[in-house]
């Protein structure tokens, strides 16, 4: 595993730090200039690791939050995306700026008796928020249709916006013809495009990530208040599951998923499954495989002495600098550069025990692994001291005296 580094220095302290509060204020300003050293984003592979077992998916992919591909199978092949469509419907609807508290009118969508629906009738007056909830949690097709009509005046006009948005975010194997995902030969996407859309939704639309994490929602349809339950069978069952959207058409089932553990966020997509259970089994397999493949790497311990600084009140003493907490990060094997950025006080700053001195942030292939905060701990006599040395915590990098 290769290692690279970058170090930024905060301005030299002009006088001894008489209080931790004043020093902390200086450090906050320093932390604002943390800059990552990024390796190029690329497909990642774990040497010697067997591929995840898939039971039904004809196309599948798992990526991290930075978009690094950890595993893929037929990721560019086009399949019906079914109700995963509704994620793009939510994105475009929120882009419109329409207030979530706006009262919406209901138009009969004529979607057929087998289409999953909340049961809205034309006399109902749901809020825009309620329609979005019914659409994303319960996958209500009538809610998706009416989101489109209330935002753009017609579904056709809304779909034009959906296709424009798909092009904007780089979905090159996707085409929409409706706002709900009911089957149509010209309505399709790919696994790679769908995880791109899922990542985009989570990064830019907090309401979407919050809504798809719900296990149920309450709607008032046909004059009756009803609780509708999530179609995501992994929510509340799979550790770290965060959503996001199921799909089902006559030709197969689909699922776009997201989960997070140990500061690792994964996005998965499975297309062309044959059963409801198969899409969840294969999603679980992709996520389990990825989390098990990550390796836990210790990068900091509180007992490590990283550098010695002049003591503010007795130049015959030194103040030892150490990590403030133990830190272990999840690292993808053979996943490119492991890089870090350090912000700290200039060498020679006069310090006392209990002061914050800096922080280091680690990244791998564009994914932030986590941060380590540094601080002073104990006083030692000015003498030769066995300073622990790592590329992250080296005397040279820190310019310690």
TrEMBL record:
A Pfam entry, by short name: Peptidase_S11
Source organism superkingdom: Bacteria
Keyword Transmembrane annotated: no
Domain Peptidase S11 D-alanyl-D-alanine carboxypeptidase A N-terminal intervals: 54-274
Chain coiled-coil ranges: none
GO molecular function: carboxypeptidase activity
Record keywords: Carboxypeptidase, Cell shape, Cell wall biogenesis/degradation, Hydrolase, Peptidoglycan synthesis, Protease, Signal
Assigned EC number: 3.4.-.-
Enzyme class (EC, first level): hydrolase
Cross-referenced Gene3D superfamilies: DD-peptidase/beta-lactamase superfamily
InterPro entries in the record: Beta-lactam/transpept-like, Peptidase_S11, Peptidase_S11_N
Family assignment from sequence similarity: Belongs to the peptidase S11 family.
Protein name stated in the entry: D-alanyl-D-alanine carboxypeptidase family protein
Source organism of this protein record: Olsenella absiana
